[in-house]
Design a protein that fits this description.
Chain B: Keywords: Membrane, Transmembrane, Transmembrane helix. Chain B: InterPro entries: Gaa1 (IPR007246). The complex is a heterodimer of chains A (394) and B (509). Chain A has 394 residues and is of the alpha/beta class. Chain A folds into three domains: 84 residues, no CATH class; 268 residues, Rossmann fold (3-Layer(aba) Sandwich); 33 residues. Helices cover 42% and strands 15% of the residues of chain A. Chain A is built from twelve helices and twelve strands. In chain A, the strands form three sheets. In chain A, strands 3-2-1-4-8-9-12 form a seven-stranded mixed sheet. Chain A is elongated. Chain B has two domains: 289 residues, 3-Layer(aba) Sandwich (Aminopeptidase); 89 residues, no CATH class. An eight-stranded mixed sheet of chain B has the order 2-3-5-4-6-9-7-8, with helices on both faces. In chain B, helix 7 links the parallel strand 7 and strand 8. The radius of gyration of chain B is 28 Å and the shape is globular. The chains are: A alpha/beta (394), B alpha/beta (509). Chains A and B meet through loops of A and helix 9 of B.
Chain lengths: 394, 509
């Protein structure tokens, strides 16, 4: 009875934890436009790609969709590179880039299949979003859009309702814990207006009937290299979120947007999030842009529960051992008719287990604690002594 | 409803309704012409804009300067040394230069016969293959040895050579670049473009031994004047009134004006105040040129093949040097290089009235249609009249027919003779057509005067020779115009000696 009670406790704790913590981070980065003059859209996505990689999300957990290859476009004055700034300090294409969906693979169908994981057996793991109910996902999209749609490659478009339904299906399939949906396109805010699934924070670059503008052009490449909204997101991420230990919150990120910078009204939607704006704004930026780094340092209650459990387990094992030994000894005694109780040199593995498996006992735990305390005390004494001697030597 | 219909039918029989068409027709002309004169106003014309996203004009730094100027001077010497030599000698002199860039070159012979003269020559061209492109598309840089005014293109040819040498250094071309050097500005480009599209007559024009991809655009340089220049004249009229896509003109204007600070003029309006008078004059000049349909430069031959092209001609005394023109060409080529598909976004039918103002076909067409409508109105009126009893002239004296009598008294139209006359006249127009196409150049003007006189003389004689029904050729007004437009030679459009329509509106005074 006591045993089952002990097992129930950690399970309960784990259940409460699941609501608050995520255990993996994924990013879905989608550019939806091709052609040379849309260079900036690819640069947008690649800059976000670079940022999430910098903050620790591995390539295996980033789904990157690039419909065109700017680096190898003959019009590119700097072959093999993509830059998102006219200073050309950072080559976004670099030597380590993993594009999961490229060219004409970037379609609405593939995007929705990716989100909802409705893919065939032949789909490689690198092209799948293998998330669970404790995964945080960053979904970043950029391209040419309009009121409640985003154009994919001049051929088709995804509607706000399609997107909302895809997210809902993800929620029903327990495919995410929380989502940060970020979109940089004209009239971007209309794209998230139809979402209705829980635990989504959504942000977009511009309101209905507003265009999303490019930030600046590189006059040697000859095209605009980045959009304003992405540029200022990137600026925040590069200057404020320098590493995964950053405590900057989504609230800080959203507050950094202003009309003066972006030239359009960036929007944020909190109402789907559990706890509303307050909770959403307290989420760390790294909860979505960085890889999960949750090390449970403190967790006293949890660890005692585990230790108690282990203790009881080892007690049972010890008892079982004893019982087995006794049984064996009794059998031996019966056969040889001679009183030999202690440690029979039997060839059985049970006997060998005796000296190797050291049963955990509470005394043992206490001695360990005492030993540790004594060691600390000894060190302190040594240090005190040393400083005293040094002081007196002067 | 039925009553309304009945009264409308009643109205149809009213003889007074037949008096209306001349006034209606006149009103149409009046409104049409007035409409035309309204177009240059700000309310009716529009500012130009770049419609094609891919062009991105003026977004690149241009680097054509510095040491390239020395290269230009060297080529200028080379070209000056070849001045006055024969076509073959010139090509012999220029071809090694092009081969020196590491380019493939080829030549093409052509001979045209027109108006008793032979236009023969040899084109020279070189293809710069796009280093990383797929060789499916090409853009053309044209420099004719002589411009349309028969002046030596003394700066244009060396500039084109320098530019090609400079373009060779870049690795960012997505399209091949073809440099075409022609002996003249009309026949040479025509022969080359025809042969490029395999639409040439092999007995007169040689085929091209070397080809590249689909032509996406062409720019011609006509820089015959010595020394520096002030502004750029963009010549855009094609053959038979065809025009290049407006995006190309806008891109050149944007690059020259916006990026380089070089003024742009159109239609030989060297000074343009951007006020009503200048706008109207520019527009009318454009219309006249379109109406005449003559080639206006080396670019004209490209436009019928849907290759958008313009000629850049510097003019005036200023401080812009040939390098500035070169940078304009460089910028324009970078823009054309960005194209993903043929220029198609912007207008093909437009009237430019200033470098940044235009009217599109939707705005100016109603004017032309109103003017044209008057012919139809009068033709219908005359036709109706010819079917009514009695002389058309005296409806005033004739009492209106009572309503209860035969509602529409009609007479049989005797059509055979007028139709035969019209057919005969049209058939006879083959004579002037043949004559105009085969007469030597010197005879053209006298011939034209002769035919003008003949057709004027035949006009008063036609009513007398015609049979009794008063309007002799009631349906003829629309036909001569259609036959005229179908005849290829523009000067023969006035040749068919059938009576022009406006006088026939008052047939029996």
């Amino acid at each position: 009875m006591r045993l089952s009670g002990l097992f129930a406790l950690p399970a309960l704790l784990a259940a409460t934890l699941a609501a608050a913590e995520h255990t993996s981070n994924w990013a879905v980065l989608v550019c939806t436009s091709r052609f040379w003059f849309n260079y900036r859209h690819l640069a947008n996505v690649l800059s976000i790609y670079r940022t999430v990689k910098r903050l620790g999300i591995p390539d295996s957990q980033i789904i990157l969709m690039l419909p065109d290859d700017m680096a190898c476009n003959p019009r590119n004055a700097f072959p093999g590179t993509v830059y998102s700034n006219a200073d050309r300090a950072v080559d976004l294409y670099g030597d380590n880039i993993e594009v999961d969906y490229r060219g004409y693979e970037v379609t609405v169908e593939n995007f929705i299949r990716l989100l909802t994981d409705r893919v065939g057996d032949e789909m490689p793991r690198s092209k799948r979003l293998l998330t669970d109910e404790r995964s945080n996902i960053l979904v970043y999209m950029t391209g040419h859009g309009g009121n409640e749609f985003l154009k994919f490659q001049d051929a088709e478009e995804i509607g706000a309702f399609d997107l909302a339904d895809a997210f809902e299906q993800m929620w029903e399939k327990k495919r995410y814990h929380e989502i940060l949906f970020m979109i940089d396109t004209c009239q971007a805010n209309t794209m998230y207006s139809k979402l209705y699934s829980p635990n989504i924070v959504a942000t977009g670059s511009s309101e209905l009937d507003q265009s999303s503008y490019s930030h600046h052009a590189d006059n040697d490449i000859g095209v605009a290299v980045i959009d304003r909204y992405t540029y200022y997101n990137l600026e925040f991420l590069e200057t404020e979120v320098r590493d995964t230990s950053s405590k900057k919150t989504l609230g800080d990120l959203f507050d950094s947007y202003s009309y003066e910078k972006i030239h359009s009204n960036a929007g944020v939607r909190y109402d789907l999030f559990r706890g509303g704006a307050e909770a959403a704004r307290k989420r760390l930026v790294t909860d979505f842009f960085g890889n999960v780094q949750n090390v449970e340092v403190d967790g006293a209650r949890n660890s005692t529960a585990l230790e108690e459990e282990l203790l009881s387990l080892s007690r049972t094992i010890a008892a079982l051992h004893k019982k087995a030994d006794e049984e064996e000894a009794a059998a031996e005694a019966e056969r040889r008719a001679k009183g030999a109780k202690q440690t029979p040199a039997g060839p059985g593995s049970k006997g060998a287990a005796g000296p190797f498996v050291k049963p955990l006992t509470e005394e043992n735990w206490l001695t360990k604690k005492l030993l540790g305390a004594a060691a600390v005390a000894g060190c302190t004494l040594l240090w005190g002594l040393g400083s005293f001697l040094e002081g007196s030597g002067k | 409803m039925a009553r309304l219909l009945a009264s409308a039918l009643q109205l149809r029989r009213n003889p007074r309704i037949l008096k209306l068409p001349p006034y209606l027709s006149f009103l149409c002309i009046l409104v049409g012409v007035a409409w035309l004169f309204l177009l240059p106003l700000d309310q009716y014309s529009r500012r130009t804009y770049i419609s094609e996203n891919a062009l991105l004009p003026g977004q690149v730094h241009t680097y054509f300067s510095g040491s390239d100027q020395n290269v230009f001077r060297a080529y200028k010497h080379e070209v000056a040394a070849l001045a006055g030599k024969t076509n073959a000698q010139i090509n012999d002199g220029l071809e090694p230069l092009l081969r020196g860039f590491g380019l493939k070159t080829a030549r093409q012979n052509f001979t045209y016969h027109a108006a008793g003269r032979a236009y023969a020559g040899e084109n020279l061209y070189a293809i710069l293959q796009a280093p990383r492109g797929d060789a499916t598309e090409a853009i053309v840089l044209v420099a004719a040895w002589e411009n349309v005014r028969r002046e030596l293109n003394r700066n244009g040819v060396p500039l084109a050579l320098t530019l090609l040498r400079y373009f060779k250094r870049w690795s960012l071309w997505s399209k091949d670049i073809i440099l075409l050097l022609t002996p003249d500005s009309i026949a040479g480009p025509q022969a080359w473009v025809d042969a490029y599209h395999d639409a040439h007559d092999p007995s007169r024009v040689a085929g091209l031994p070397l080809k590249s991809g689909l032509l996406q655009g062409a720019l011609a340089i006509d820089y015959a004047q010595e020394g520096r220049f002030e502004s750029l004249h963009v010549v855009y009229d094609g053959v038979n009134g065809q025009l290049p896509n407006l995006d190309l003109i806008n891109s050149v204007v944007h690059i020259a004006q916006g990026q380089m600070g070089i003024g742009v003029a159109l239609q030989e309006m060297w000074r343009h105040s951007n006020r009503y008078g200048d706008r109207l004059r520019t527009m009318l000049r454009g219309m006249v040129r379109q109406g005449l349909g003559l080639a206006s430069g080396p670019h004209s031959a490209f436009i019928p093949y849907h290759v958008d092209a313009v000629t850049l001609r510097p003019f005036g005394q200023g401080w812009q040097d040939e390098m500035a023109l070169g940078r304009v060409v460089e910028g324009a080529f970078r823009s054309l290089n960005n194209l993903l598909e043929h220029l198609h976004q912007s207008f093909f039918f437009y009237l430019l009235m200033q470098r940044e103002r235009f009217v599109s076909i939707g705005t100016y067409l109603p004017s032309a249609m109103l003017v044209a409508a008057n012919f139809t109105i009068m033709a219908i009126a005359l036709w109706v009249k010819s079917g009514q009893p009695g002389d058309a002239g005296d409806d005033d004296k004739a009492p209106p027919p009572p309503a209860d009598e035969d509602p529409l008294p009609t007479v049989e139209r005797k059509l055979f003779r007028p139709l035969a006359a019209v057919a005969l006249i049209h058939a006879v127009s083959v004579v002037p057509l043949y004559l105009f196409n085969h007469a030597p150049e010197s005879a053209l003007a006298p011939l034209f005067a002769l035919f003008a006189l003949l057709s004027a003389a035949s006009r008063p004689s036609s009513p007398t020779s015609s049979p009794a029904p008063p309007p002799p050729a009631p349906s003829s007004p629309s036909r001569p115009s259609s036959s005229a437009s179908s005849s290829p030679s523009p000067s023969s459009s006035s040749a068919p000696p059938s009576p022009p329509s406006p006088p026939s509106t008052s047939p029996s005074p």
